[in-house]
Amino acid sequence: MDGSSFLTAKLEWNETPHKPHKIDSNDFQVFVKQKRCEQRMECKGKEETMISNEGKLITMNAFIGFIMIVIGMITAISPYTGWYMSLGWRFKDAEPSDLALSTQRAGGVVLVIVGMIFLLSSCSFGTSKDSWPERFHERLTTVEVEEITVGFVDKVTIKEEEVQEIVDRLKQSQFESFELGTTYGFNNSAQITFEDGYSIEVIIGGPSGGVEVHPDEKEVAYKILNSGLESWFTSHYPNH
Fold first, then answer.
1. Which of 32, 146, 203, 227 has minimal Cβ neighbours within 10 Å of its Cβ?
2. SS3 190
């Protein structure tokens, strides 16, 4: 086939009308699940990194606190040992004064107190982070929301003042956990993206019958207990 024949054939093929592919409801549900799975995997990696960093900080604080308590107890019980470890080893045949021993004992007590503060703070920090709703509330307070989009296929970025209104509503909301069933459906969805890159999907009219979030690191979902939030989405963005 020469060049002109090939070009003619190519043009004829391009001009041939293509029949639109009809997608049934099952295909669309599969597509929805695949897209949500991709979004969840991306967000899950970011969330796992944050949790890992928090875990390292907790472990480090606990380790420092434990070391301080051990050294403080040794110094408080045996101030001579504390004095020798800090200064006495530098001098030959040196003896500490009574004032030096008293200072070492007081310093040991202070060190034990500081070590206990480190240890208890790491324990309380770790316990508070076990609750996803508390972590999410803290994120809303400490990390700026970059944008919120509404819609699954034709996404619309909402206005800045509306973003603040949604954030304020979420801060005032309580979260109720529930188990996800085998069936899944929703009326609308929104994507909240934070400045650090973490994002989470908000489901409107999902299995719980209201507004809910599905954290990627949890096997359960959370219904947002805010009666005005669903009506806000349906009234402002009903067709997305």
1. 227
2. strand
